[in-house]
Design a protein that fits this description.
2 domains; 7-stranded mixed β-sheet; D-Amino Acid Oxidase, Chain A, domain 2
Amino acid sequence: MRRVLIVGGGIAGPVLGMWLKRLGLEVSITEARPTAAVGEGAFLGVAPNGMNALEPLGVAAAVAAAGTACEAFQFINRRGESIGSIDRSGDASAFGRPLTMIRRGQLNAILAEEAARQGVEIRWGQRLVAVDESHPNHVIARFEDGSESSADILIGCDGLRSRVRSLLLPDAPAPSFTGLLDYGGFARGVQVPVPPGVNLMLFGRRAFFGIFVTPSGESWWFHNGAPESSDLEALRKRSDPARERERLLELHREDPPWVGDVIRATPTLLGPWPIYELQAMPRWHAGRVCLLGDAAHAMSPSAGQGASLAMEDALVLAQCLRDIDTPAKAFAAFEKARRPRVDAIFRAARRNGSGKAVSGAFSEWFRDRLLPLFLRLGASSQSKMYSYRLEWEKTT
């Protein structure tokens, strides 16, 4: 194996590309978007385990400098009353790096720029349309612009709606809708009852709301709630952003007033993004093609591990390709190594996401009294996820 083609230039692709360059391989990334998507999405958290997967590549420091460490999670009910918290102030000393909140576009740009600096070729504006696996010793990718690329192996890092997955495993289950719609945005000049560095989570009367304030005073927020319509594709087209803003304000009308202030102060409403999950993929690879990250195992963001799992995937796949001399065996070893951890975090994400559903008065009363206990268990589970550390030098 000398030539590797990676489809997808978001998070997983550039990280994998950097690891494979360390093996002396020729690596090319193709991405359908015309640029590094610096304006894509809202924000996310790179967990300590994800930061530690970036550390040997020399990228973790740049991500930390662009982001903000999360010191705690605070949970409140619709009356603004505190119902629990998780202290994360010791994560840097315990795990080497803290949970780092960062704009998704900034993370995309940092990873793409560093991959290019380390010698990974990135070709923007190339949309995959076909994969030819008829040759015994290589695979050919064909693109919408009429071009094609040949490689010894092809890795699909192209996310939830993976084109590689649809071509490689046409009978694979489709991503399933979780019942929640995600909006987000960035606002300034609003007083919110949370200090910088704390993730505040609100169980609202009709929807869930999260907010994180940066040291500069910018409020990063997201909303999770049921969609108004079952036509998810129509929702994605954003036909009337002003109406969507009014709908969010109405959904949070019975919640603390500052929530509405934040939504009104947001210049551009981001989303909506229907939240999907991809469970029970029968396999992640076939022949000389393998899936990685969300293309193989997309899950709800409620566990805060999507990006970090993709970074771990990249390191482990590179180890397998380093230590095992045939693609099929390397891909099988990768899947065997990763499935138990991915499945465990998938279950945690589903449990966390189910708690965001709107409940009745009695359920709210019950939740408010039991949440501190659940949070103690959740903090322990979260720390276990964070403590996971991969060693590049370890053989597979």
